[in-house]
Structure formats: C-alpha cells, structure tokens
Write a structure and sequence with these properties.
globular, 4 strands, 26% helix, four-stranded antiparallel β-sheet
C-alpha cells in the first residue's frame, strides 16, 4: 500500500474546527497536531504582536494515510471549512512501523 503524510498548516483559530472535521471523517487513521510558528515575507493577516515578533502562530496536523485517501480528506475539509486558510502538502512515506 502506498502511503502519504498529509501536512496541514493553519491558524490556531481553526484548531478546534480542523480537529473536529478530521475526527468526523470515517475510518481516518489517527493524526498528530503540533503548535508552531510561520516565518515568511507576508504578514498581511498577522496580529500586531506577530508583526513585532516577526512570526505568526500556526498549528499543524500530520496524517499518514493511503495515497488514495488524500483527496478525500482535502475535499472533506473544504466542505466542512469552506474558505478556511489551510495550507497543505503531501509527502511519500517510504516506511512506517513501531519500535515496540
């Protein structure tokens, strides 16, 4: 089975909505969420605090799933969160396992 890691990056304001949308998707494997900071040249939507600090707060979700499900997950997010500013990309997962 060909696996992909789907990476989602979004504003912390969307955290609960993104998590709820992912949890509502049938048979979706588990996922990991993280808090991070975005760095770049565009601060159009940044708060004053973020502009002073030079970075914006971002949340991330990582999902490892079969390659054929990536579009399904993205479509589900588009339906549940229309217009939400979520940046995404997918990566090939060569190997996956547990050490235990």
């Amino acid at each position: 089975m060909e696996l992909r890691r789907l990476n989602l990056v979004f504003s912390p304001v969307l955290e609960d909505a993104v998590i709820a949308a992912l949890l509502d998707m049938p048979d979706l494997p588990g996922f990991t969420t993280l808090h991070g900071e975005g760095h770049g040249s565009s601060f159009d939507t940044a708060s004053v605090r973020e502009r002073v600090r030079g970075r914006v707060a971002r949340d991330l979700a990582w999902l490892v799933l079969p390659a054929e499900r990536v579009d399904e997950v993205l479509d589900g997010l588009r339906q549940r969160l229309p217009g939400a500013d979520i940046r995404w990309w997918s990566e090939i997962v060569e190997r996956l396992g547990r050490l235990a």
